[in-house]
């Protein structure tokens, strides 16, 4: 019996050799023994064909179905590997793109502003409906002193831009924070509107999973998801 078994094993090994199937696994492959690779599948398939009942052999359809199932699984694994590689490349691209924003100004919701490199402050606010009057005021964020006020007049529905371009020289120090308040009359008297301010990007970074978006460190506003930025100056 042992001679027959040895002969069978030898014949099976000869088939594996002809098919280029490796029966020797590395330590790393053995450690991940919960996964079947292509060689494992072909070994099982060959053993199944060798040991099938000659009077009731495997149907062609069953054989093809097994091959198709393995091909599908193998294809999915390859797609996953490609997606992981693509995700890593996308992460690098996001970082490179975010890095180009260093020193630029991006639009973020908030009321804190500082004069930019040109000594100006720019921002927008959104009106849910037309306003008969609108106003923007700039005050010292520390003392509350009124620095500048500007009537923007009637405005239509949607985004309304505003700016303070003739900021006095003594106020152009970037270390001085200025608070921006916007109000508008949409039929119920002057009401406060939430502005968005163009603020300077200080740095860009990305952490964790490759699918995580790059983040921007924006002056006075901290860390912001780069994918949420819609406007740049």
UniProtKB/TrEMBL annotation:
It holds the Pfam family FlgD. Belongs to the FlgD family. GO terms for biological process: bacterial-type flagellum organization. Required for flagellar hook formation. May act as a scaffolding protein. The gene is flgD. Keywords: Bacterial flagellum biogenesis. Gene3D superfamilies: 2.30.30.910, 2.60.40.4070. This is Basal-body rod modification protein FlgD. Residues 119-182 form the FlgD/Vpr Ig-like domain.
């Amino acid at each position: 019996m042992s001679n027959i078994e040895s002969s069978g094993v030898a014949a099976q090994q000869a088939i594996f050799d002809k098919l280029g199937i490796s029966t020797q696994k590395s330590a790393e492959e053995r450690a991940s023994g919960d996964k079947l690779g292509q060689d494992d599948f072909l070994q099982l398939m060959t053993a199944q064909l060798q040991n099938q009942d000659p009077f009731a052999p495997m149907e062609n359809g069953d054989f093809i179905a097994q091959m198709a199932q393995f091909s599908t699984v193998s294809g999915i694994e390859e797609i996953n590997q490609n997606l992981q590689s693509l995700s890593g490349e996308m992460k690098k691209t996001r970082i490179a793109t975010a890095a180009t924003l260093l020193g630029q100004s991006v639009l973020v919701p908030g009321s804190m502003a500082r004069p930019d490199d040109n000594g100006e402050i720019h921002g927008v606010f959104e009106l849910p409906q037309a306003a008969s009057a609108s106003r923007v005021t700039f005050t010292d964020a520390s003392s509350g002193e009124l620095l500048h006020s500007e009537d923007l007049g009637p405005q239509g529905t949607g985004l309304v831009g505003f700016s303070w371009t003739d900021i006095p020289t003594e106020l152009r120090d970037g270390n001085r924070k200025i608070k921006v308040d916007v109000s508008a009359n949409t039929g119920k008297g002057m009401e406060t509107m939430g502005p968005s301010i163009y603020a300077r990007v200080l740095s860009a970074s990305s952490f964790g999973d490759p699918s995580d978006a790059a983040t921007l460190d924006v002056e006075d506003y901290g860390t912001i998801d780069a994918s949420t930025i819609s406007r740049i100056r």
